[in-house]
Amino acid sequence: MRNSFFCIDAHTCGNPVRLVAGGGPLLPHAPISERREIFVRDHDWVRKALMFEPRGHDIMSGSIIYPAYRPDCDFAVLFIEVSGCLPMCGAGTIGTVTAAIEEGLIKPRETGRVAIETPAGRVDVTYEEKDGYVDSVRLHNVASYLHDADVAVDVPGIGRLRVDISYGGNYYAVVEPQENWSGLDGMSASDIVACSQRLRHALAGVCNPVHPDDARISGVHHAIWCDRPVNDVSDGRCAVFYGEKAIDRSPGGTGTSARMAQLHGKGRLTVGSSYRHESLIGTIFEGRVEAEANIGPYRGILPSIGGWARVIGHNTIFVDDRDPLAHGFQIR
């Protein structure tokens, strides 16, 4: 049997976004958080086939659009990437909105504004459109917060680090320059990946954050290494790690949200402040602390992230059962 998937390929500030416009599995009409569980249980081969090699690569990221269950949302999204079916993805949201509007997959109820149902909650998005193209997108992300500060962890090859565990749609280990880590200068991409893998493994035995409103969101699967900016217009620079070997080419939407929540939680970023976040390749997300928020017993923020995406092509992908590599592979 051969399955066909029609995809719109795009990138958000350098990070790939593959929007599955046709061929995605039909799922029951239920909250997208429940549909996510069904997808992971019964259809995760779709994610692996489209994200892993030979049809994808180590940093591949994508999404599938579904009808919204919530009446206050325009559509729902499942985020698929090499690391799994995520609760939320900021770069994926910016790329998905851009591609879906430019290619006519969705028609917003109100021009310049859409509400998206994600497994992490409702995400409001505004966008600027000119001559049929989406120039920029600002997503108003889910409530984000600092979960744990100054967690001590011994990382092989690095030594003892103090990291902050922060939530921005996914949980992150936030690392700033300190005695045993001097910063991003001089680190290669492979260095960042190796350090991140060791850090995540070490943290597994130290902490396991669970979202106070949804126990299905748990664990530290991402890391963000933070440093001083290179670009004069930026406030900070970062390398976001996810999956097994992936470094986000954008500054990371949930990563930037987690970073701002961490800074706010430590009294270093106030409501109304902006935070221009620079990626390893120099692209920038403009974050902003819109308001404070309560997440269970935690005091956090409502962040927004501004960025841009570009559609780069149409892609019809075949997944043929005769192919011994039909469902993809990863080299570890």
Radius of gyration: 19 Å
Q: What value does the average pLDDT take?
A: 96
**Helical proportion, percent range:** 10-25%
Give me the strand/helix succession. EEHHEEEHEEEEEEHEEEEEHEEEE
Count of discrete alpha- or pi-helical segments spanning 4 or more residues: 5
Catalytic activity: trans-4-hydroxy-L-proline = cis-4-hydroxy-D-proline
Protein name: 4-hydroxyproline epimerase
InterPro entries: Pro_racemase_fam
Family: Belongs to the proline racemase family.
Helix and strand topology:
Blueprint: E1 2-12, E2 15-22, H1 32-42, H2 44-51, E3 61-66, E4 75-81, E5 84-86, H3 90-102, E6 113-118, E7 121-130, E8 133-140, E9 145-155, E10 159-167, E11 171-175, H4 189-204, E12 210-211, E13 214-218, E14 222-227, E15 236-242, E16 246-247, H5 253-265, E17 274-278, E18 284-295, E19 298-307, E20 309-320
Parallel strand pairs: 2-3, 4-6, 11-14, 15-17
Antiparallel strand pairs: 1-2, 1-20, 3-4, 4-5, 6-7, 7-8, 8-19, 9-10, 10-11, 12-13, 14-15, 15-16, 17-18, 18-19
